[in-house]
# Entry
Amino acid sequence: MAVPRASIHGEWSSGLVFILAATGSAVGLGNLWRFPYLVGENGGAAFVIIYLLCILLVGLPIMIAEITIGRRGKRSPINSLRSVSLEEGRSRRWSLLGWLGVAAGFFILSFYSVVGGWALFYVLQALLGSFGGITADAASELFDTLLASPGSVVVWHTLFMLILFVIVAAGVRRGLQRAVTLLMPLLFVLLILLVGYGMAASGAFQEAMAFMFRPDFSAVEAGTILTALGQAFFTLSLGMGAIMVYGAYLSRQESIAKSAAWIVGMDTATALLAGLAIFPIVFAAGLEPGEGPGLVFVTLPIVFGEIPFGYGLGLLFFVLLSVAAVTSGMSLLEPATAYLTEQTGGNRAQAAALITGLIWVLGIACGLSLNVWSGFELLPGMGIFDALEFVSNDIMLPLGGLLIAVFVAWRMRLSSVVSELGADQDSAVFKTWLFATRFVAPAAVILVFLNATGLFG
# Structure
């Protein structure tokens, strides 16, 4: 069976737009929220170095493999894997890998949209000047009150999902492309402005530079390496169908390897810049960098209420956080929307509306599990929010990433891979990528899976 060579959804107008879109998918709360506090909790620069090595050895090889499947299939992850597996003489059951990715994205967006709603809520609070002179108790109460209010959680979750629906329903060029060409430059401008403020606070910026880039390997333990490995994998949106479906819209004239390298580089640079934006603010206020997840929603509002230009900086930061959440969220909505559009041959807006509605309902359940349904356990010791996060992030994504590497490196014909990548199979670069995809990345992903599920060691 021949692989379809034209996407019914359209294509990106250029390789640059694809890079911006895929970077937008990868750059999210994991960069601006999770990465800085992981650096803070794991000793600073030593963690950054290990993280960068993991990105090169695990993240980049799997990203190239995932884009390869998407562009060769030119459809949603499910239909791309079905087409490519049949063309390669493999079982059509490989399409289950596509289902796994689409389902993971579906589950992730159901709770991610709740957190995206928090970011929108904090934009409003920053705009209203709520952080001015705020105390630690008041900052904690503000966040706790938001989580405890079913109405507030649902309203902000709904607003976030409506934003995603409007973008995705408009299609590849009129929706996704327009959004990323506007939002991604805005994201980088906002981030650079925040870093610029940190540089102006010279003492604190120097302290942040030393913290992030002066290694102390005595702080490194086995758990530190596994944490860096897990962050490197999850930050790139691998295994959830987003990168694969974006790859389906990539022209054959564009280089997959070069595009993937740019995406990984920009994602990593964003994570590092986020650290350089956040840590000077934290150090200038005399706070500890290892504050954990509460760093963004509890600690930083206190800082913005005390430092010079705190009103503008707080507003900039939470707009930045919201933009990052939107660019990631729309990539999570796209795979399921693309599949439903293909299967029904119907209106894309109708498909997007149905998928958005289903995720919205599940997201309401996630939001209510933080308050009125907090006593209900979907899994032992876990409410709906935590259970979906655990199943998707700790089980589905590593499994998806592992199978993507196995399919491309072991089940596709070498000639097909070489053709799609436009590579010289005898070159050292291609051989290195193939070795990493066949052996290094799968082994690393298995370690991530075992560690995340508590089976390691």
